[in-house]
Predict the structure.
Amino acid sequence: MEYVKALLTDLESELPHIWGRPLESIFIGGGTPSVFSAEAIDKLMAGLRERLPIRPKMEITLEANPGTFEQERFSAYRETGINRLSIGVQSFSESKLKALGRIHDSKEALNAAAIAKKAGFDNFNLDLMFGLPQQNIDEALDDLRQAIECQPKHLSWYQLTIEENTLFHYSPPVLPNSDLLWDMQEAGQKKLLDAGYHQYEVSAYSQENHPCRHNINYWQFGDYVGIGAGAHGKISMPDGSITRHQKYRNPTQYMKQALLGEARSSTNTIKEKERVFEFMMNALRLKEGVTKELFEARTHLTFSDLDPKINEAVDRGLLELKGDNFKASTKGWAFLNDLMEVFL
């Protein structure tokens, strides 16, 4: 409970920066918050309601690991007001889960969705990866088949990437080659579409009217407040500047600093020349793109100043303009890194 107290004290320190702004969503993530007791989550939610204008049916997501699923606990979470789960399944294959070093097994992965539904969650996301060590197309599609049978409203399906300072980085596994990855992606996208899941972002697929509101805000370069050990946030200031903040990573140090009202370990201002790239890096991941008006509102820059770069991207067939809207073309979607480089 002391950590929950620190979270709420941290939030109180952030509130002066966002007074009067509408709250769109809450996402309780950053690891495995589902290890929290129901009492702790209840105290957190009660504290949030005291400090924030939480509307009925607002999207409130809890990130969960299949290994932590217990119907009684998740029913209690549902009663606190949490109405969406994001479940980190990654794969339904026993061998692939072991290769990834996951703490849950395939049976727990399959049971997680059933337990979520019994606990009252009709809206949940399943996180899946493809391009796993020595994975073939049939195995990737079988993961998707089992996920679809769980009937989630939302699926995150993305390629495994090797991050620095991880076990895979120091001892790389045998991964599918680029041609096989492309075939996996195309076959998987067709399977998802046939099952009624529409792709609205590079790795996000949802049934009608169920995209993740929290992530859309992030991809549209929206503001968000981060609380908790290692959390980060982005806030647009009244003077037109945009800042990013980071919280202390070590939980013990974080709690100490948060209770003093000093949880931020760093605050940085995003330079104007960096805003263009950051906006495009996020917004062009959205399949339907964004508007020029949104670009100007979120970056405090003038869209017409981008004309040389926009024209270059259009001439190269990477970008499409239609009225006030702009988005990655089919080619730009396939070569998103090339499109991003235009805005560096």
